[in-house]
Amino acid sequence: MSVKENQLKAFEKVNELVANQGVFYVKLHQYHWYVKGHQFFKLHEKFEEYYDESNEFFDEFAERLVAMGQKPYSTLGEYLEHASIVEEPYTEELSGETMVRNLVADYRTLRAIAVEGIEAAGEASDYGTEDLLIGYVDSIDLNIWMLQAYLGEDATE
Question: Model confidence over 115-135: pLDDT tens digits?
Fold first, then answer.
């Protein structure tokens, strides 16, 4: 693949992350609002921390694209069309543990997209995008580890 093709692939991955962050942000709010049970205080606070962090990355990804002459997705319809993460109305109660397991799966999806972007950005010598995505993966790895520890499992399970 040429440098230009790798650059475009990196931008596509960052834009895919924009779409996923839009959906993930909403999903985290939903869990924040609906969590119940003996772990309410811990999870309610943690979900808020995660959606604040998600919002920061959401903005950084979109601004990186604009700074590089690209057009980030910017509508709810685009987010839903291009996101890998799914969300749905809260019609049935979910346990806090189920919410946490769902978030681990979502973080793993986001990580896989980011890794593809890192590889493409590296091939294109786009060090700014590469660095942004590496920082994101570092954050995701920490979040997965903490969520898995909450579940009593190893980070790699």
Answer: 999 999 999 999 999 999 999
Contact by Cβ (8 Å): 65, 71: yes
Contacts (Cβ under 8 Å, ≥6 apart) of 114: 13, 17, 133, 136, 137, 140
pLDDT digits (tens, 9 = 90+) for 67-79: 999 999 999 999 9
* Claim: this prediction has a pTM higher than 0.90: yes
Are 64 and 73 spatial neighbours (Cβ–Cβ below 8 Å)?
A: no
Are 17 and 114 a contacting pair, CB within 8 Å?
Answer: yes
The continuous run of DSSP H or E covering 126 comes out as: none
Q: Are 62 and 72 in contact (CB under 8 A)?
A: yes
Nearest-10 crossing angle of helices 3-34, 40-67: 150
